[in-house]
Design a protein that fits this description.
The strands form two sheets. Strands 6-7-2-1-8 form a five-stranded antiparallel sheet. Strands 5-3-4-10-9 form a five-stranded antiparallel sheet, with no helix packed on it. It has a domain of 104 residues. The relative contact order is 0.15. By secondary structure, the chain is α+β, with helices and mostly antiparallel strands. The protein is flat, with a radius of gyration of 31 Å. The protein has four helices and ten strands; from the N terminus they run ααββαβββββαβββ.
Length: 178
Amino acid sequence: MPVNKEKVNELKKKKAQTISTHEDRKQEKEAFENPPIDTVETDAGKSLDDFLSGYRATKSEHKSKESSESGVMSVIYSDNGKRITFPVDFCEELGVEDKLQIAIGSDTILVGQELPSNEIYYSLKKQGRKKIIYSAKLVGELVEAFNLDYSDGSVSKTFSQVEHKSFDELKVAVIKIQ
């Protein structure tokens, strides 16, 4: 069978174009991942104050957390959702797996797997090291009952004062709401 030189040359050209395209893509990717660093020239004779004359200082202040203790319950009240979170180990200590009950006191919240005279259970969804109750109504009830104030721009209130109690087989957590 005779070799078609035209066909061979055409195939060689396509192969060369493919290799070239591959190399171009590789170079583009490298340039994107490692952009060139612009050098900044110093302004001889100018002070930093002169340079900063077109800038202003930021107004926002950094507020550090008031407590270094880890929380046992957080109430999140934001446009992205209203929910309550508990650490997984806190739930395990109470024997809570996929649902729990909550009762409201004057300055505390009771949390347990079973609370007498309580028919409402809240489902827990696991996300990482947290268990979460997604209930806007419950969050609203807690905000109202304890006058939780989110007007300062915060979206989360975390509570860490907890006392564990056992009654026969039932374990409950009494969480202080400050």
